Amino acid sequence: MPGLPYLMCLITLKLRVNSMGKFGFSISKGRQIDYEANDRRVADYIFAREPSFRSCIECGGCAATCTTGNHTKFSLRELHILIKRGENNLARQTMKKCMLCGKCTLVCPRGVNTRNIVVLAKQAFQIFDKHAV
Ligand code: SF4
Ligand code: SF4
């Protein structure tokens, strides 16, 4: 049989939950990334053909020099992260903005062949999704 303090806690908690909506609060949806459920075939395809992809330290130097990035929200650094995480839907949308000019490759302090990574990602999406990006 629960004691009075236990019942008081339950009542207080219920009152708090019920009053959250009145003050504009709500319970946030979970934002966890389930890496195990993500499709990492595109990342693996690139790792196998362009080993320098592993050297990226996500410093953002490429994104800072990218012409597209200076005029849109496109970021090569972000694209690398999305591909490595296997978040392919976002990566596919983002990647379309790259003009393949290669400027980013010239500034990368880690010698990552950034342009080739985008080319390989396009190939991988074509192979796995059966349509061009
Ligand atoms: S500049 Fe090179 S190391 Fe830095 S985020 Fe871009 S690819 Fe990675
Ligand atoms: S190749 Fe793509 S990511 Fe690199 S600088 Fe050019 S537009 Fe930007």
Secondary structure blueprint with pairings:
Blueprint: H1 4-20, H2 41-49, H3 61-65, H4 67-71, H5 76-85, H6 88-95, H7 103-107, H8 114-129
Residues 56-62, 76-77, 108, 110, 112, 114 line the site of one iron/sulfur cluster.
Describe the structure.
By secondary structure, this protein is mainly α. It has a domain at 37-129: Fumarate Reductase Iron-sulfur Protein, Chain B, domain 2 (Orthogonal Bundle). The chain is 56% helix and 0% strand. The chain has helices spanning 4-20, 41-49, 61-65, 67-71, 76-85, 88-95, 103-107, 114-129. Helix 5 packs antiparallel against helix 6 (88-95). The radius of gyration is 23 Å and the shape is elongated. The mean pLDDT is 89. The structure holds iron/sulfur cluster (2 copies). Residues 66-69, 76, 98-104, 114-115, 118 line the site of one iron/sulfur cluster (SF4). The site of one iron/sulfur cluster (SF4) has 15 residues, from helix 4, helix 7 and helix 8.
